[in-house]
Amino acid sequence: MAHKPRILFYFLHLLGVGHVYRAQRLIEGFANHGFAVDVIYGGPRLDDISFAAESVHFLSPIRAADSSYALYLDAHDQPLEKPFQEQRAREILAIFDQLQPDLVLTEAFPFGRRMVRHEMKALLEAVQQRRPKPLVVSSVRDILQERKKPGRVEETCDWIDQHFDHVLVHSDPQVIRLDSTFPLTDRIADKLSYTGFVIPPAKKAPSDKSYDVLVSAGGGAFGGDLMACARQAASTDAEHDWFLSTGPNLPEAQYEALQAGLPGHISVERYLPNLAEQMKQAQVSVSQCGYNTAMDVLAAHRDSACRAVFVPYDTEGQSEQLRRAELLEQAGYAICLPQSRLTPDGLLQAVEKARSLPKVDHEINFDGVNTSARLLHTFLEGR
Q: Which of 196, 222, 293, 379 would bridge with 368, disulfide CB 3.0–4.6 Å?
């Protein structure tokens, strides 16, 4: 192409922040591969994150009220209603009108994020009218939240049939396939491309300090039960050093309770710099099983003797983490102990089982960032 190809990348986070960090990694990769990227950001802003983008356009944000994802709130913390949705759609169309993207990339939609279907419909209809028409690509993680309501999977396929040219699946199909959680994968198979997993570049660990058991909870919004149980389990295991990385979003009262009367072999901090590399110095990693954390665990399995226990968040009707943890346990990468069955004794037993896990003989594809960029170039060249 004669000009620098432009991507308009739409994404948002509703509660957890993993989607934003995965998007950040992709944007940096796209920029390194010669793309100009414009971002439409639809969730609450994060103060500690920036993007390698030409421009970032913040919509009036929406968010989930709590971890049940049963209620969504607008920028004024009021239940999401039609006038606010229409306002966001107008904001998106105004942004699209001033840009000239060659490709529109949506993160998660239409496989998830159903609450933004009204604004997505407005954007995708505008794309259809634009000449030359931009390509439309969906970017989706390895595991999808289970769709219990009849017709929702078929609805997703209809969106893809009508509006999407390609779907990028950020997974290694030898480890986790999309059809594990999307039953109509065959219907859209001609548009699917697996990229490999998206992980951050490896960095040198910041210190020589290592821990026998490293417990982490991502941002911490869902980690209170895991941390409390790990603190109790660790108190009876004086033979090993435990480090609990709670995440910045753990409520202050819970954090203070963890710190109270702390034995010498247990450390509790909100943040452990370069957690992914610190995992590689631990004997056992205990974590939830969101996408980004699972990638850190898999990289540690590949590069070190660290073995893993996953405690997937499986309450409030959430199935994504549980399904990922079950599949990775079946493949030999970890021990799965769902949060709904979590006890201090059960956690200690899982940690001991993890210590004896052998190394899995499979070279995981972690090149999701570069492969995604190369695929988008190929899609554009083939228009």
A: 196
Residue 242 has pLDDT above 60, yes or no: yes
Cβ neighbours of residue 162 closer than 8 Å, sequence gap 6 or more: none
**Treating both helix axes as pointing N-terminal to C-terminal, what angle do 344-355 and 224-235 enclose, rounded to 10 degrees?**
80
Q: What is the DSSP string of 109-173?
A: TTTS-GGGHHHHHHHHHHHHHSSSPPEEEEEE-S------STTHHHHHHHHHHHH-SEEEE-S-T
The pLDDT value given to residue 206 = 57
Three-state secondary-structure class, residue 318: coil
Fold exhibited by the domain 6-198+366-381 = Rossmann fold (3.40.50)
Model-level pTM? 0.90
Q: 267 by DSSP, 3-state: which?
A: strand
Map residue 47 onto helix, strand or coil: coil
Buried b (16+ CB within 10 A) or exposed e, 365-376: bbbbbebbbebb
Could you tell me the end-to-end alpha-carbon distance of the chain, in angstroms, rounded to an integer? 11
For residue 107, give the 3-state DSSP assignment: strand
User: What's the mean pLDDT when you consider all of the chain?
Assistant: 93
DSSP state, residue 198: B
Q: How many angstroms separate the Cα of 256 from the Cα of each of 54, 241, 246, 250, 269?
A: 42, 20, 11, 10, 10
CATH class of residue range 213-355: alpha beta
